[in-house]
Amino acid sequence: MSAQPPVGRIRIVVGKPGLDGHDRGAKIVARALRDAGHEVIYTGLHQTPEQIVETAIQEDADLIGLSVLSGAHMTLFKKLLELLAERDASDIVVFGGGIIPEEDIPVLEEIGVAKVFTPGAPTHEITGWVADHFAVGA
């Protein structure tokens, strides 16, 4: 899935929705994206999909990256995408990672998740995907 290149630096909101209390992976990804030259806003633990969407809209984000380890990925991604549509912000690209079974990935992609990274994905794979699909034209 390719998107129109944003003007200026790519702005990415990284969110940890739900009750999951582990954010080491999200922080590592946020740092890697920042080190790759992107503007990154990390929303912190225990955010609702509503809070993450509100942050993305207020921050004029180009992408939202969700980290889900709780097993509630189907519900959380679906709710986030519905909220983006309701707020006329479906142009914000959603990607994610965490403990997500392989068989759920095609379903998530069908509902609009651009990319899902599974546990152990190296950070250069994530930053490379962002660079390849959302590169700012020079």
From TrEMBL:
PANTHER family the record matches: COENZYME B12-DEPENDENT MUTASE, METHYLMALONYL-COA MUTASE, MITOCHONDRIAL-RELATED
Protein name listed in UniProt: Cobalamin B12-binding domain-containing protein
This protein's UniProt keywords: Cobalamin, Cobalt, Isomerase, Metal-binding
CDD domains: MM_CoA_mut_B12_BD (cd02071)
Residue ranges of every copy of the B12-binding domain listed in the record: 9-138
Keyword Metal-binding among UniProt keywords: yes
Listed cofactors: adenosylcob(III)alamin
Pfam families (UniProt xref): B12-binding (PF02310)
